[in-house]
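=== RUN LOG ===
request id: a7f3
mode: sequence -> structure
chains: 1
length: 357
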Amino acid sequence: MAGPGYYEVLGVSPQATAEEIKRSYRRLAREFHPDRNPDDPESEERFREVAAAYEVLSDPQKRANFDRFGTADPVSDPFDIFSAFFSGFGFDADPRQSANVGEDIEVVLELDFNEAVFGGPQEINVRLPVPCDACEATGAEPGTEAVSCDECSGTGRVRQMRQSILGQMMTSSPCGRCRGTGRYFTNPCRACRGRGRLRGERTYPVEIPPGVNTGTTLRLPGRGGVGRGGAYGDLYVRIQVGPHPFFQRSGDDLIARVEVSFTQAALGGQLKLETLDGTEEIRIRAGTQSGEVVVSKRKGVPTKRGGRGDLLVEISVVTPTDLDDRQSELLHELALLRGEQVDSGRRLKRLRSTFKS
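=== RESULT ===
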């Protein structure tokens, strides 16, 4: 907000005293306070505008800067001085185009693990500024038209001369009367209070490409908020992926950790594993050690190049803790055959005596 807009928001003149500004602020703050207007986005927006205007006009230094330069903060950066100097020679960007374009909107879309891996169609619901049906997004009361702003002569900017270290310079700022659009309404639309838009709900389809991950952002052009006159901003969809109970992701690869018995690891065999593509058989070679990784090619996450990553199965060899007497005897015999030292040798001797008697 710039120019006389702050005074207009509070409904006071530029010559208003500090007390008059305070009284107006308190009255408007009570009127538009969110507690008094629950679930009313328009009142919430007006409350923020009132608070922003009071923040500037209640501060003597900010108000002085605002009255002199058209902004709450003085131009002090060398680049700003350079820009201010050349603004008087036709180098300004046209503010009317940006003033009419709606803002960009960002939403978060939560996906489960499989949806993120394989992609597919989704729908997103978003609350955002939508065109006012009453005035067809023009901001004017039906039957009336906007007129050229006499404050800025329809340019959307106001220029002021100010003194700087380089002498007198021309500064340029958005016009507060027309808010940079170059036009204003003598009869603003009563439904949207001249804004040309209201808060509403929209549902948009979005195609999720395979392989997205948390932090991926998709851009939907022209699906953001609407500006005065009907120009839309963009909608940005930020992806949030939920965890999987079994798989972890590393880039385009999937990682699974499975437990096998020490006999399976020693003798080898086949292991059935539920993957994202269905049941797969994983071959465990004889002599597999804990920590070894079995690679299943092209069973991971689809890549941008059209291929797929791999499935990496990390093996964890589990030592039994609930051996019965017969199993314990067999292991002891195996240890004797391999010449390995193990505990419970006396127990093995008692077992042998029992079988001989």
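=== NOTES ===
Residues 329-356 form one domain.
The two ends are 102 Å apart (CA to CA).
=== END ===
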